[in-house]
Design brief:
Blueprint lengths: L1 H5 L5 H11 L2 H12 L10 H8 L8 H35 L2 H5 L4 H22 L5 H4 L1 H6 L4 H29 L5 H32 L5
């Protein structure tokens, strides 16, 4: 799974080995900023190995600080996406909604405003659960920015969602530190990450169905 995601960008296994040899809090933070922004980069290459190393005797890192540092990086990356969408994306979306092409796709300004209103009123849940869904993790900040979601609510629920995800990855790293020698770590992270990915896709499908229902199906007064 990790190879498929990163194949066109770099050698995931090679990066994993490099990170294991050079891991520290700054690298955890920097790569999680990248992972959470618009650059595709899997957090599975960062948090599990950092947590694994934190559990080794004599390590300079602490697994709790690894998790918090990763969450802080994810928040900064999400804020980059939020403000890019707010300053650049929103005008483009409205221009498209008012165009002939937009109307052909049954999109108009009224529907965009309705979607914005929904996200402003219910965006907390969308932002939180979106952080648990593969691929969507990096993109959920964009509709929040376009809809001008309250920035404090955005930061709180983004942080909570990212924290839950990073805890799951850190627990994976902790678990593997008890059963797997370092040379086998990459293979096992890739193997167990598939289960997290399928779980995230399941959450994503349920959330998408619910959101589309609330936006496009008239609600009884």
């Amino acid at each position: 799974m990790l190879d498929l995601i990163t194949l066109q960008i770099f050698d995931a296994h090679e990066f994993f080995n490099w990170f294991v040899e050079n891991a520290n809090y700054w690298f955890v933070f920097i790569f999680m900023v990248i992972e959470s922004s618009f650059i595709p980069f899997p957090s599975e290459l960062v948090v599990p190995p950092a947590a694994y190393l934190a559990m080794q005797q004599g390590s300079s890192m602490n697994i709790y600080l690894v998790t918090l540092t990763a969450t802080a990086g994810a928040l900064v990356g999400a804020l980059i996406n939020y403000y890019l969408a707010l300053w650049v994306g929103r005008p483009i979306v409205y221009r498209f909604a008012n165009s002939r092409v937009g109307h052909l796709f049954m999109i108009n300004e009224e529907k965009v405003e309705k979607a914005e209103k929904y996200f402003d009123e219910h965006g907390e849940a969308s932002t939180f659960f979106g952080r648990l869904i593969p691929v969507i993790r990096q993109l959920i900040s964009l509709p929040a920015g376009i809809a001008r979601m309250n920035i404090f609510s955005f930061m709180i629920f983004t942080s909570l969602g990212a924290l839950v995800w990073n805890i799951a990855l850190a627990v994976l790293g902790y678990f593997l530190s008890t059963i797997v020698p370092l040379p086998q770590l990459y293979t096992k992270v890739e193997e167990y990450n598939d289960y997290l990915t399928y779980f995230g896709y399941g959450i994503g499908i349920l959330c998408l169905i619910y959101i589309l229902y609330r936006i496009f199906v008239p609600q009884k007064k």
